[in-house]
């Protein structure tokens, strides 16, 4: 645990982790933006970070020079930060785990995070992700929920992932959690691949709403709703300028099928999570 820099050891009530990583798992910056949004909404406070020295290639993820008071130069290193907050109206606290996907020693990195969850007596881990897909920008955002635990799948209306192929740090982390007996679930938002270089507040909004419901809390999303409407309008304007792209998007509009893992919303979802965690209480 030497790589974990503790500012303090928080006293937490039956904590649940909400994790997101920038990079391969974060199309349209939707997952990382959603985690930051919920953390800010619930006034999360930092309490620890992971030393980046062993896990990052600094030629790929470069440190940043910052100026303090316009004079003093400071190096800001990439890292993974942990913050804690109380979920309004819930019996759980939430730990936010956020950072850039590391390049090195993934197994060691994930074992380190599993160790942190054990030390904090975390009851469940929820990760956020976003992927590029053949989806229409004006349609409702497709959010898919997956889990490895059969009972969690059944209770929350999730599905077992059938994906085969390259994976990111989120996939490796879920494997480490499963081998350690820590329940985990993942929420993925689909982002239109034809605007992959544009941040997607619409996908961010979908993940914020699902994550908040899963954790049994509420978040004011008015500003995200406005940003999502503006995003949809701007993308429509850009598509209209390209005849080939407009024809492709029109075909998507006719053929796309919304295939969500239907997750109960609001209070019913929070109640199911609570029942699952109570039945699987960890000593």
Explain the layout of strands and helices.
Elements (H helix, E strand, L loop, with lengths): L3 E3 L9 E7 L7 H12 L3 E6 L13 E5 L3 E5 L3 E7 L6 E8 L5 H14 L4 E10 L9 E5 L2 H7 L12 H11 L4 E9 L8 H15 L6 H19 L2 H13 L10 H14 L4
Parallel strand pairs: 2-7, 2-8, 8-10
Antiparallel strand pairs: 1-3, 3-6, 4-5, 6-7, 9-10
Helix pairs in contact: 1-5, 2-4, 3-8, 5-6, 5-8
Head-to-tail CA distance between termini: 21 Å
Rg on CA atoms, Å: 19 Å
Structural domains: how many:
1
**How many strands in all?**
10
Low-confidence stretches: 258-262
Order of helices and strands: EEHEEEEEHEEHHEHHHH
CATH architecture: 3-Layer(aba) Sandwich
Describe what this molecule looks like in 3D:
The protein has 283 residues and is an alpha/beta fold. It has one domain: PAC-like subunit (Rossmann fold). 37% of the residues lie in helices and 23% in strands. The chain is globular. The model is unreliable at 258-262 (pLDDT under 50).
Short recap of the structure:
With 283 residues, the protein is of the alpha/beta class. Helix content is 37%, strand content 23%.
Give structural attributes.
283 residues, alpha/beta, Rossmann fold, 8-stranded mixed β-sheet, 23% strand
């Amino acid at each position: 645990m030497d790589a974990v820099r503790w500012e303090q050891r928080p006293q937490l009530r039956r904590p649940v982790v909400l994790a997101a990583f920038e990079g391969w798992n974060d199309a349209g910056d939707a997952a990382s933006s959603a985690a930051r949004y919920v953390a800010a909404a619930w006034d999360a406070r930092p309490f620890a970070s992971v030393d980046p020295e062993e896990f990052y290639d600094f030629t790929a993820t470069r440190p940043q020079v910052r100026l303090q008071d316009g004079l003093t130069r400071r190096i800001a290193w990439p890292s993974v930060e942990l913050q804690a907050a109380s979920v309004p109206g819930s019996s759980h606290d939430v730990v936010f785990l956020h950072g850039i996907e590391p390049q090195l020693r993934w197994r060691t990195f994930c074992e380190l995070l599993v160790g942190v969850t054990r030390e904090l007596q975390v009851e469940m881990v929820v990760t956020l992700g976003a992927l590029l897909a053949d989806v229409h920008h004006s349609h409702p955002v497709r959010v898919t929920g997956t889990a490895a635990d059969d009972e969690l799948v059944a209770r929350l209306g999730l599905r077992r992932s059938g994906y085969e192929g390259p994976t990111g740090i989120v996939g490796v982390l879920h494997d480490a959690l499963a081998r350690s007996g820590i329940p985990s679930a993942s929420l993925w938002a689909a982002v239109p691949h034809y605007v992959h270089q544009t941040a997607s507040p619409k996908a961010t909004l979908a993940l914020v709403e699902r994550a908040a419901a899963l954790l049994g809390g509420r978040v004011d999303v008015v500003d995200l709703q406005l940003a999502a409407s503006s995003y949809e309008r701007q993308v429509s304007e850009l598509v209209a300028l390209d005849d080939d792209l407009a024809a492709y998007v029109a075909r998507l509009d006719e053929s796309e099928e919304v295939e969500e893992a239907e997750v109960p919303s609001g209070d019913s979802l929070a109640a199911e999570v609570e029942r699952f965690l109570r039945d699987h209480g960890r000593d």
